[in-house]
Amino acid sequence: MIHFLLLILATAGFGLLCLSRERHQRDLIGRKLPTRTGHYARWGGVAILAIAFLVAGIRLGWGVGTLEWLGVASVGAILTTAVLSRRSGRISSPR
Question: CB neighbours (10 Å) of residue 52?
Fold first, then answer.
């Protein structure tokens, strides 16, 4: 269960980091967010990744937890990139 929670936190963190970028905002939601909201998304993403690291360290021990966090962060980044690529392709390709 902890592994699934860490994966959700990592994916959410990278999703918010992705949403903080102006280019990706257009791909994901079709418009640009206000500057302040972009800043909140960036810091929210960093905070969620930090929380995931703390949860992993506390629940699994700092050695194993760090490795687990790196693993789920990698999977979360890949999932976020896949969703972004799919959304970007859907928006840019005429159908």
Answer: 25
Task: Report d(CA 70, CA 24) in Å as an integer.
Answer: 24
Please say whether the beta carbons of 52 and 15 come within 8 A. Answer: no
pLDDT digits (tens, 9 = 90+) for 1-59: 899 999 999 999 999 999 998 888 888 888 888 989 999 999 999 999 999 999 999 99
C-alpha 80 chain-centroid distance:
6
**19 touches 28 (CB < 8 A):** yes
Alpha-carbon distance of 8 to 76, in angstroms, equals 8
> What is the secondary structure of 69-91 as a DSSP string?
HHHHHHHHHHHHHHHHHHHHHHH
Residue 59 identity: R
Residues in CB range of 30: below 8 A, 6 or more apart: 91
